[in-house]
Amino acid sequence: MKGIIVVNAYAQTKSELNQAIRLQEEFKNLQVQIEIFPTDKIAVIVNNGNLINRLDKIDFCLYLDKDKHILQALNKLNIKIFNNASGIEICDDKLLTHLYLANNGIPMPKTIGGVLCYYPHVKYKQSILDSVETQLEYPIIVKECYGSCGKGVYLANSREQLEKIAENVKLKPHLFQQFIKESQGTDIRVILVGKKCVGTMCRQNAKDFRSNIEIGGIGKKVELKQSYIEICEKVAQILNLDYCGIDLLIDNKNTPLVCEVNSNAFFGMFEQITGINVAKIYAQYIFESVKKIVKKRENNEF
């Protein structure tokens, strides 16, 4: 069996590369030929109306980037991708994630989609902010739809701050969201493989309203109620994710609210804190999944 792990061409930090290195280690333990591929080695080339395949024959691709163009090129070449292209694209867009989960009985913070502006010189519409103020109480969370590790997430404590933040994000997809004060600086990260929960971690940040470990949060292993786990597993089913990290906020009624879904959630610190070998579990899941596909191909079942 042969596969590739795709990472961003500009990935440099230890946290960015840890995932790929850990997974490569576990695949090698399974006797899988595996290579880490930066995205610049898979440039999208369309020549004479045909997509050029620059890859040697592989059985699967583990995609750890968010470049949707390369992702769709791999999909077009009928390469088996983990996660699938649709799941990665949905999770990469925070508002799109909420839209896909809506009307499925998934509890989430109240969320209002921002309206895109295409003119830098035009001020953010006050009527939109008036509507946000009537539906959400201060403080109000403002998020850019694209971003990770707490980047592009802001807190507005007043109309003045809300106007300033809205003005800064108006040219980008964004949303406004209910602030869950009981979860200030705290959330629960749930890791799922094969749509099943493999472990949970509580993240806390005493100096920031965001819990992300990358900006100073700390983590500890926790046990979740089965009802909370069932919600997360339902989310993975709806979005058809092979792997994901789901962030839960707990409100004053002890209701778990799905805040974000990360299709390529970092698991380095998660492994250290929980003692759970996520890389091994995920590699084994992919190995078994691809083995079934290869067997069907050999038996001409496709």
Provide an overview of this structure.
The protein has helices spanning 14-29, 68-76, 85-92, 94-101, 126-135, 159-169, 226-239, 268-274, 278-298; strands at 2-7, 33-38, 46-47, 50-51, 60-63, 81-82, 111-113, 140-144, 153-156, 174-178, 186-193, 196-204, 218-221, 243-250, 256-262. It is of the alpha+beta class and 302 residues long. It has a 5-stranded antiparallel sheet. A 4-stranded parallel sheet has the order 2-1-5-6, sandwiched between helices. The mean pLDDT is 92.
Compact description:
The protein has 302 residues and is α+β, with helices and mostly antiparallel strands.
Keywords summarizing the entry:
302 residues; alpha+beta; five-stranded antiparallel beta sheet; four-stranded parallel beta sheet; 9 helices; 34% helix; globular
Low-confidence stretches: none
Secondary-structure element series:
EHEEEEHEHHEHEEHEEEEHEEHH
Q: How many individual helices?
A: 9
Tell me how many strands there are: 15
Which overall shape is indicated by the principal axes computed on the Cα atoms? globular
Structural class: alpha+beta
Mean pLDDT: 92
Subunit organisation of the chains: single chain
How much helical structure, as a percent, in the residues? Answer: 25-40%
State which percent range the strand residues make up.
Answer: 15-25%
In angstroms, what separates the terminal alpha carbons?
Answer: 19 Å
Question: How are the strands ordered across the major sheet?
Answer: 13-12-11-14-15
Largest sheet: 5 strands, antiparallel
Radius of gyration over C-alpha positions, nearest whole angstrom: 20 Å
